[in-house]
Amino acid sequence: MPPPGALCRTVTDVICLQGGAEFGPACREMDADLLRRAGPGPTVIVALAGAPGRDYDTAAANGVRHFASLGAEARAAPDARDDPAGALAAVQEARLVVLPGGSPHRLLAALLSTKLADALRAHVAAGGALMGASAGAMVLCEHTVLPAGRPKVSAALGLVPGCLVLPHYDGQPRWVGVLPPGAVVLGLPECAGLLIENGRATAVGAAPSMVGGRLVEVGESVVMP
What are the tens digits of pLDDT across the range 107-133? Predict the structure, then answer.
């Protein structure tokens, strides 16, 4: 386990990991600040943690409505399971890409079976901003728990190396015995999380977050090694 004040190293300037209940009133200040840090350009919602059809459309519409109300040029990407080329084009045009919650298994499978996993890596390598909530935050890390049925750990996108997210964190241990040794566990409450920017991770939102067993108060930062 890394020492206090240390966090896993990331490869981008702006990643926001949130614990869930995204797009609600308690997220407005946190998300407005994220938009400011991301800079001008489209905010694109990629709701692949939802099932195709109504689930995808509802989650995407909720995200567009929320970010548009904050002044963003917000749009929904086409469902990559139906229109991979359209989804890829939308991500390539984005300044901020948002992955809402749902099923981490469904989201990870969709990203890996299309070109979107590589597109997200290219996006952050080029300095683009990225937000993931609940399942979206889970798959951005090096490891993710796939909780359906018997929980197991899988390799994820690795955009936040060495880490694993516990979403909807309420201080209670979860998935004990499943978590990989040596992973930095990030416990993220709903409407809260961590903003990772320029070598620092800052707790944001409505409640403190847990980083490797240490509670990080809102506004407090930890330095990444």
Answer: 999 999 999 999 999 999 999 999 999
Element (H, E) at 103: none
* Cα 28 from Cα 18, distance rounded (Å): 13
3-state DSSP assignment of residue 74? strand
- What is the DSSP code (8-state) at residue 181? T
For residue range 49-99, list pLDDT tens digits in order. Answer: 999 999 999 999 999 999 999 999 999 999 999 999 999 999 999 999 999
Token reading at 219: 């506004």
Task: Evaluate whether 217 touches 203 at the Cβ level (below 8 Å).
Answer: yes
Cα(19)–Cα(186) distance, rounded to whole angstroms? Answer: 9
106 CB-near residues (< 8 Å, 6+ apart)? 48, 49, 50, 51, 135
Phi then psi for 144, rounded to 5 degrees?
A: -140, 145
**How many degrees, rounded to 5, is the angle at CA 175 between CA 169 and CA 177?**
140
CB-based burial label for 51 (10 Å; 0-12, 13-18, 19+): middle
